[in-house]
Design goal:
alpha+beta, 116 residues, four-stranded antiparallel beta sheet, 4 strands, 32% strand
């Protein structure tokens, strides 16, 4: 009986993991839009005036993204950033930032990388 329960639990976990692995990941453009929209909604809800703008993202592998974007603050010159993230739809956050930093330019992701 114990073996049957363990086997059932294993199959339940395996099937949910398999289903999660089959879920389509967002395109690079969808990820960029979601990333900026989420960050801007959070900023607005907390009374912050800066906003993320002009995301340019690529999907290097399923669920792995790199984006260039600008941080706009009223009355200041936009600040360019580069970010790498993993899509984590079943975690507390739908994405996890794994690398982030400032860059000299951000007209596009290629431009941001070239400015390093």
């Amino acid at each position: 009986m114990r073996l049957v329960v363990l086997l059932a639990a294993f199959l339940a976990c395996a099937s949910s993991a398999f289903a999660a692995a089959r879920e389509p990941t967002p395109t690079a453009a969808e990820f960029g839009y979601d990333f900026v929209a989420t960050a801007n909604a959070y900023a607005a809800a907390h009374g912050k005036r800066e906003r993320l703008v002009k995301p340019d993202c690529v999907q290097a592998a399923p669920g792995k993204y790199m984006c260039a974007y600008a941080v706009h603050r009223p009355g200041a010159k936009p600040e360019c950033r580069l970010m790498q993230a993993t899509w984590t739809p079943h975690a507390e956050s739908t994405y996890t930032v794994t690398l982030s930093g400032r860059v000299a330019r951000c007209r596009s992701l290629r431009d941001a990388l070239d400015s390093l």
